[in-house]
Amino acid sequence: MHSNGPVARLVDEFARLPGIGPKTAQRLAFYILSQPPETARRLAAALTEARDNTRRCSVCLNLTDREPCAVCADPRRNPEMLCVVEQPRDVLAMEKSRGFRGLYHVLHGSISPMNGIGPDELTVRELLQRIAGGGVKEVILATNPNVEGDATALYLSKLIQPLGVRVTRLAHGLPVGASLEYADEITLSKALEGRRELY
Amino acid sequence: MKLYADEAVVIKSVSMREADRVLTLYSRTRGKFRVVAHGVDKPASRKRGSVQPFTFGKFLLRRGRDLDSVDQCEGVEYFTGLRQSLEGLSYASYLAELVDAFSPEGETTAGIFELIMESFRLLGGENDRLLARSFEMKLLCLVGYRPHLDSCTMCGAANTPGKIIFVPALGGVACRDCAGGEKSFALSGGTLEILKVISGWPLAKLSRIKTGHVREEEIKKALRGFIQYHLEGRLKSIKFLDWLDGD
Ligand SMILES: [Zn+2]
Ligand SMILES: [Zn+2]
């Protein structure tokens, strides 16, 4: 096999994808090539179609194929609650839980003091404009419980609180199905912070 | 022995392929070293909490061909104070990056481990900025770059109050004639004294020092000039700190 032939190029393209190492890339490439040509054409068509028809929703900045996105366009959703997430995949996770009936705002990243990534590289300005537009009563910061997510939440709450809007953060605690004895101290202390009354 | 134990603080964590991370650890006995933590980005990983940056923990490590890997780990101290404020997190990132930049892998320098631990315990309070300056001075001293502050580094002339300049390329203060065309930073008399004090005093006592904005800015600029002279390449976390400081 020539290292610059079409097969090698296909392997290279797969290897660029997140979470795919060189071995997996090779396996995927050879799988595609072992199948009838239709398989490859369907995959290629799905890729270009998805890419060409996906843009950011002008309201929440989530990825969408229509404007505004299905969540923003849904009249049954509560526009007074805004859930701020780092990535489009977080919206997906929240929606799967079906526990949230408000609207979203996607930051497309998180603040990373370690990597010099500041708020300018996120959609913070759009978030503030949205809040300034009125109607939002509570902003739920649903950033990840790690250094970047913490930094992002701390920054946003400092910015949003003066606007007279209630700011909350997702409670971080014990994963369902986990047992107390295996929880680390920081998880336990966060779970304790986020404890609630039993009725 | 394939397995060995160590206690170390996580100063950096970089995500890799799959759910793996490469951690940069600093331990009292081994100094700075890197290990791979497999699967820690998976939701069910038990190691996840204890491999977060700015966590001190007990590690059971397995020798590997390239990097050693984390077999087990248990968080011991999480420095929750620094996690409560944006300043705390940002300064912790900066101090960790400084240690990383000034420490060769696999080499121990006495005092650095203790300096990291003490700083991480104190960050998140009212004094993060001065604490960072003191950390810079102490770290520079530990790694052998102690800035010369007592007299002109070139001719030995006593410091003339009001005319003191700090010249990174010369390794400390100098008189104007000796400085030549090298990049220099003006220090007022009081600032020089503070610089001496913060390199000697314990971090926990820094709150007793009254500095003022002008002096803090002078110290910040001089030390940054000094650090950047010795480090090739820019520190990534500086950009964010400057943004926090509003400049
Ligand atoms: Zn939308
Ligand atoms: Zn001189």
Folded structure, characterized:
The complex is a heterodimer of chains A (199) and B (247). In chain A, 43% of the residues lie in helices and 13% in strands. Chain A is an alpha/beta fold. Chain A has 2 domains: 47 residues, Orthogonal Bundle (Helicase, Ruva Protein, domain 3), CATH 1.10.8.420; 107 residues, Dna Topoisomerase Vi A Subunit, Chain: A, domain 2 (3-Layer(aba) Sandwich). The radius of gyration of chain A is 21 Å and the shape is globular. The relative contact order of chain A is 0.08. The model of chain A has no long low-confidence stretch (mean pLDDT 90). Chain B is α+β, with helices and mostly antiparallel strands. Chain B has 2 domains: 75 residues, Nucleic acid-binding proteins (OB fold (Dihydrolipoamide Acetyltransferase, E2P), Beta Barrel), CATH 2.40.50.140; 164 residues, de novo design (two linked rop proteins) (Up-down Bundle), CATH 1.20.1440.120. Chain B is built from 7 helices and 8 strands. In chain B, strand 4 and strand 5 form a beta hairpin. The longest helix of chain B is centred in the last third of the chain and has 18 residues. Chain B starts with a strand and ends with a helix. Chains A and B meet through helix 7 and helix 8 of A and helix 1 and helix 7 of B. The site of one zinc ion (ZN) has 8 residues of chain A, from helix 4.
Q: What labels would you give this structure?
A:
heterodimer; A: alpha/beta; Helicase, Ruva Protein, domain 3; Dna Topoisomerase Vi A Subunit, Chain: A, domain 2; 2 domains; 43% helix; B: 247 residues; alpha+beta; OB fold (Dihydrolipoamide Acetyltransferase, E2P); 3-stranded antiparallel β-sheet; 7 helices; 8 strands; binds zinc ion
